[in-house]
Amino acid sequence: MTDELLVVRAQLGERAALAELLARWRTPVWTYVRRMLDADRADDVTQEIWLSVVRGLPRLKDPGRFAPWLFTIARRSVTDRLRGEYAQAGERSGVGEVVVEDPAEAMVDRAVLVSVLSALPVPEREILVLFYLEDLPVEVCADICRVPAGTVKSRLNRARRLLREHLEEKGYRP
């Protein structure tokens, strides 16, 4: 069954359709959030996302655009969390900019990648995650991030360059 049909059925009050929709998208949403935040915060933010989805689903006008709508909610939730943490950290330290790092993963290569991704600026990291890891086309990434497709392409280019530079600094040669 397509997402569009599941959305329509969920909007009509069918709980089984809503449960199937949530089950289908649970892992991709958590994975996206996890790549932007650490695991503990990803769990909290993911719960907030699903609450927003359940509340907002009746108002979704175009059921065929469920995935971009869902990732827009996820993006907004991640941004809100980071913005709040940056503000709190800035108040505590008197500095406005804080680097948030992901904890190291068990495997060395994964740990390096996670470390390098977390060192990238949020807009570039977000585009890399959406485009390469969530496998979304440029147009959908642009829609989610609310920027023109050209901006997505330039962020992708910059993100790849920064990623390459960070990996080279850590001793990995592409």
List the keywords.
174 residues; mainly alpha; Arc Repressor Mutant, subunit A; 2 domains
Protein model, in words:
The termini are far apart. With 174 residues, the protein is mainly alpha-helical. 75% of the residues lie in helices and 0% in strands. About 8% of the residues have low confidence. It has 2 domains: 79 residues, Rna Polymerase Sigma Factor, Chain: A; 75 residues, Orthogonal Bundle (Arc Repressor Mutant, subunit A), CATH 1.10.10. The radius of gyration is 17 Å and the shape is globular.
Put the structure in a nutshell.
The chain is mainly alpha-helical. It has helices at residues 3-11, 15-36, 39-56, 66-93, 108-119, 122-133, 138-145, 149-169.
Q: Low-confidence parts lasting 5 or more residues at pLDDT below 50?
A: 95-108
Amount of helix? over 70%
Gross morphology: globular
Number of domains: 2
CATH superfamily of the largest domain: RNA polymerase sigma factor, region 2, helix turn helix motif
Query: Total number of β-strand segments?
Result: 0
CATH architecture descriptor name of the largest domain? Orthogonal Bundle
Radius of gyration: 17 Å
What's the overall average pLDDT, rounded?
A: 83
Helices and strands, in N-to-C order?
HHHHHHHH
- Beta-strand content estimate: under 5%
CATH class of the largest domain: Mainly Alpha
Give the CATH topology of the largest domain: Rna Polymerase Sigma Factor, Chain: A
Largest sheet: none
The helix tally amounts to 8
The secondary structure category is: mainly alpha
Distance between the termini: 41 Å
